[in-house]
Amino acid sequence: MAEAAEEGATRPGEIHARRGCRPKCGNCVPGMMCLLRRAIQARAQATLRDTAILDVTILDEGVAAA
Questions:
Q1: Residue-wise pLDDT tens for the chain (66 aa)?
Q2: Cα(18)–Cα(4) distance, rounded to whole angstroms?
Q3: Under 8 Å between Cβ of 32 and 12
Q4: What does pTM read for this prediction?
Q5: Long-range CB contacts (within 8 A, 24+) of 34-41
Q6: In sequence order, what DSSP letters do the residues of 2-66 get, joined into one string?
Q7: Pick from 23, 24, 20, 25: which is nearest to 3 by CA?
């Protein structure tokens, strides 16, 4: 399940599809939601970090050009 979440799944149905299974009782959904939240937060933090690095690079290049 974690691999599917890390690879971009955003809903329990996407995890089921990637694992080739179907929901039956729903007991796995709370765990899936926890994994999905963590993966989505990690992707958001990585995006913010990448944006911050890009901003600093642009500022550094602007200072060097001036």
A1: 778 878 888 889 998 998 898 888 889 889 889 989 988 888 888 887 777 666 666 656 655 544
A2: 7
A3: yes
A4: 0.63
A5: 35/1, 35/2, 35/5, 36/5, 36/9, 36/10, 36/11, 36/12, 38/5, 39/2, 39/5, 39/6, 39/9, 40/10
A6: HHHHHTT--SHHHHHHHHT---SSSTTHHHHHHHHHHHHHHHHHHHHHHHHHHHHHHHHHHHHH-
A7: 20
